[in-house]
Amino acid sequence: MKPFTVRATARSVRRRNMLLRIVSVILLIIILLLGVFYGLSAFVNRAGNFTVWITEEDLGRITLSNTADFEESATILEADIIEQMDNITKDWLPENIAEEGEGCHNGENYIAYTFFLKNAGEDEINYTTQIDIHAVTKEADNAVRVMIIKNGEETVYAKTQKGSSEPEPDTVPFYSDTQVMNNVTSGFQPDDVDKYTVVIWLEGNDPECIDNIRGGVVKMSMNFKVQETVGGDT
Q: Is 26 helix (H, G, I), strand (E, B) or coil?
């Protein structure tokens, strides 16, 4: 009986060591995944609710600024976040919101951001404007409104009515489920400046603005890219 007892104990030790190694590997994987998740979460939170950017390949051709004089040019701009946004209606927004200021001029329940895009190169260009939706929780995008005021011309974007292809009243439908808009500006001359004001709010008159979306999140970014150089190479 004694030799058998010794062999059984050695086998148990080997099995226990193998289980410990397996558990250690699983724990390491979980820690690594949590680290990646934390890193992504930290980036999303740092990026805020809305950012504006241009690609590195377009440096020297277009540039951004919070001010019309372009004393400080940038490749990326960030709007201040609003931790908790209650629903409002478009009629509650200031009448001349695009003239309220430069940079971030949020209200209590809406994001408002005014900035400028300049043709910093020597050629006439066309450029694309996109607003991408990066994260949505609780289907909050069903009730969100994105108003773009470009050089004084106003357009309001919204998802189509739920269960229908019809637009919400007085809006242009989102370009896709992941993009608010995808437009082209043509004939942008050297030293031309386009002024943009972006306003984001939850529309209280939208049938999808219900208690279920309370605490929901919508994170977006706006980007510009030179599409082609007129009479030359891209």
A: helix
Q: What is the pLDDT of residues 124-171, one digit of tens each?
A: 999 999 999 998 888 888 889 999 999 999 999 999 988 888 999 999
What are the structural domain ranges in the chain?
1-47, 49-229
Res 214: pLDDT: 74
pLDDT tens for 86-110 read: 888 999 999 999 999 999 999 989 9
Using CA atoms, how far apart are residues 160 and 180, in angstroms rounded to an integer?
Answer: 11
Q: Which CATH number fits domain 49-229: 1.10.150, 2.30.29, 1.10.10, 2.60.120?
A: 2.60.120
What distance in Å separates the CA atoms of residue 170 and residue 113, rounded to the nearest whole number? 21
